Structure formats: C-alpha cells, structure tokens
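# nightly structure sweep
# worker-07 picked up a monomer target from the shared queue
# config: single-sequence mode, recycle default, output format = structure tokens
# input follows
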Amino acid sequence: GFERGGAEGRSLHIQFADQKQEFNKRPSKIGRRSLSRSISQSSTDSYSSAASYTDSSDDETSPRDKQQKNSKGNGDFCIKNIKQADFGRREIEIAEQEMPALMALRKRAQGEKPLAGAKVVGCTHITAQTAVLMETLSALGAQCRWAACNIYSTQNEVAAALAEGGFSVFAWKGESEDDFWWCIDRCVNVEGWQPNMILDDGGDLTHWIYKKYPNMFKKIKGIVEESVTGVHRLYQLSKAGKLCVPAMNVNDSVTKQKFDNLYCCRESILDGLKRTTDVMFGGKQVVVCGYGEVGKGCCAALKAMGSIVYVTEIDPICALQACMDGFRLVKLNEVIRQVDIVITCTGNKNVVVRENLDRMKNSCIVCNMGHSNTEIDVASLRTPELTWERVRSQVDHVIWPDGKRIVLLAEGRLLNLSCSTVPTFVLSITATTQALALIELYNAPEGRYKQDVYLLPKKMDEYVASLHLPTFDAHLTELSDEQAKYLGLNKNGPFKPNYYRYVWKQQLWVWTINAKLGIYVQLYTYVFNNY
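# output follows
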C-alpha cells in the first residue's frame, strides 16, 4: 500500500488531493466465486473453535432463544441481558472521560452532521470504548448496526446499554462459531436497510458480505479496516483486482501503529497475564514471537518487570531492532523447553504447533496477542489423550498423559481484550482515526478514490494527535515564518513527509534522505535480486 496525494485541512474536512480515476467495474461472478474460495479458509481459521465457556453466574439460555425489548419496545438486537443496560451506561460514561478527541469531534461536527445518510455496519470489539465511537458516529448523522469481531471480547453490559439506546447490536461474550456468523448476518441482512459504509476489524464482516451479499457493494462507498489481519486481506484482494470499493488502512496510520499497537499492548499484556494467572514476572523466562509494534510493547513491559525475554522474528530489520533493544534473538525450538511463558504476536498462522506444545515445560503459560486465533495450533490439542480442565474464566489446563500441563489463555484468542481491558485513552486515538476515515470516504466525490487500499494522509494523523494534547496540558511550539520557509513547510503542517518513519525510544533509527532516495532504492533492489 502507499499514500496517494497530499492533504488540505479546513475544520473536519481534511481532503486528499483530487484524483479523477473512475471506479473499476465490480468483479464478475467467476471473480466473486474465486474470492470466496481465497478468503473463506482464513476466516474459518480465525474462528474455528466454539466458545466452551460462559460465566456460571450468567443465564445459560442462548440470547438467540430470548425475546428481548428495550424500554421503548424496540427488539432489533440480540444481546445477553438488556437488564444490564444501566451498568453498561456507567461504563460508557467512564470511557468518555478518557476519550477527549472523540468527544471533541462529536462537539465540533455535531452541527454539520458529516455522516448524515451514512449507514455504517461494523464488526469490532464491543467495549465501552467502541460504544463511545458508535454514539459519536450517531451524533454525526450515521445509522449503525454492529456485531463483535471476537467471541470473547464483548462486554455484555455495554452491549445492553447500546441496545437500550436504540442501536442494533448483535453480540455477547462467549458466542459459538455459529453464533458469530449469525450475528454478522443479522447486522447485514435486514429488510429495508442496506449499509453504505463498512467499519471492520479483522476482515470477517467484509468477507461475509463478499461471500453472501456481493450485490451490496453497488451501494457501499468504502471500507475502513483497523487490524493487521484485515488489512492483509484487503491488500490481497487489491492485488488480485477483486477489491470493488475503496478501503482505508487505519492500522498502518501513525496514530494507530505507534500508539494503539505499541503503547496499548505494553500495558495490557501485563494486565491480561496477571488477571488470568496471578503470575509474578520477575525472573520468568518469556519468549515473544514477533517483534512488530505489538511485540515491542510486550517485550518492553516484560523486561521492565524483570523477565528474561527472548524474541523470535523472520524479518531481519525487526530482528536487528530486537538485538539492539537488548533481547536475545532465537528460534522457538531453541528455548521452548525452558521458557515459562510463550506469547505470539505475528499475525501469522501455526507459529506454535503441537510439536512445540509437546516439548513445553510443566505449567508453561501460552497466550496470543495477535488478532486471530490462528497463531497457536489449538485444534491439535483437542485429542482424546489430552485432558482439558477449565480453571477459571478464559483459563484452561491442557494435561498430558504423564501429568504435564500447560496453561492456555482464551483458547488462543486475543489475550488483552478477551481476558482483561485495554487503556481507554489509547483507544481514543484509534477510534478518532476511524471516525475521520469514515467521514473522508463517505464525503469524497466520486472518482477521488478508486478500488484500492489507501493510507491516511499525514495531516489527518497530526490532527488526531493534536486533539489529544490538551489532556496533558501540552503546548506545541509554533514555527516562525522564517523557520517555516527554511524548512519548506506550511506553518500548520503537515510537518513530516509521507516517507518519514517515526522512531521511538529503544528502537533502531531508520532514516530516509529524500535527495538520495533513488540510490537507496537501487541498492535495495540490487541486494534483493543478488542475495
């Protein structure tokens, strides 16, 4: 993916440079059938095992078997218990205090209604933070229908509060695989209502519409995707010429990549492990598979707590970063017998397989910080010779015939949102970026974007960051006219070129010199082709 065009900002209407390309024709029927085959396996892998657990205190009746209505008599939702709405409302009000940018956006744009007429169908984690985003979109004029992107991450009380507020929400904690797809279908397949915008996290909603309702893309203006997994799917579709609407890659925006992925995981990894296992980190040997932004956050947190941290990585650049940050780079099989905790965060599949699981020491903790449950081969553990023992919510002991056991968290699904919570302030940054991306795609004139995947312009990233600075009583320095002229910048930004890479403490410095960019590209091409 690459950025297209520059940006001009006036109030909320941050615009890309005009591009006059026409939209390509939608895929043929043959193309759609190929598309379904190419991505259905990935979606099935992501949600392959049914939830085997619900809190014992909850009503065991499936929400699908209940007839519930809110106080206004509306029943267009399916949640665990509408009676939890008051509790959920208090959770949302707490989240609002830590989401200043969304609240500012709601206040500034409410009069303009930039999303008037927008019909947004969403598939994300349904938490108090998501509720603030949904209510902001509604205040800006949008109609919303929502499902969960993870069977364990839904906060039931928040879903109840949203349903009481008139939102069509279909989600509850502990869905089965069948429930998961049923909820998505209920969001999409409704008489008299058709979405014209998609907000996705992981790509499963986009996949379902492609597979079941491809004609809907005639009216859909764009897709906003926030996860590594979902963005990867979009790039695959684009490369194959099968992406029939424009898409915004929010995951690789600076504000998402550097704040949500790095800082959020740096704090939530410890929270998730503590809540589920009560483990002490000092002196523990931990292997973190993957040293992207999520891996960097996990490693930094564990190192600060006194853990001995190993890293596995396929990318030599990320590997070198890990080495220079003081971590030992290893292959998984070199340390699997000795480590106390295994954490995956690669976005790949089969990172930890049965052979690795067989060789782990007794009581080794195994968990995943990636979006999908494909990284740990949990299916290989569902065999007659192994015994599963539920210890507490989201914690299973998998016991071998000789008595050895491993501690598997959230059945290999995303640890932080399945087993704990995440910092609200960081999610404010991501949610604001998502809202602005929806506004941009919805209001863009026809032809500005073709059927491709786009990154947000630097100006929009800077705008999102600026909305959060007042929380810290932070005061930006302003360029003088002379300084701006010297640097060749607009005084109001953007302040960095699109190729600029933001580097952070304890990370490898990567630089690009514009005047010599061609030389570096040629050098890279030579090395790639010859070695």
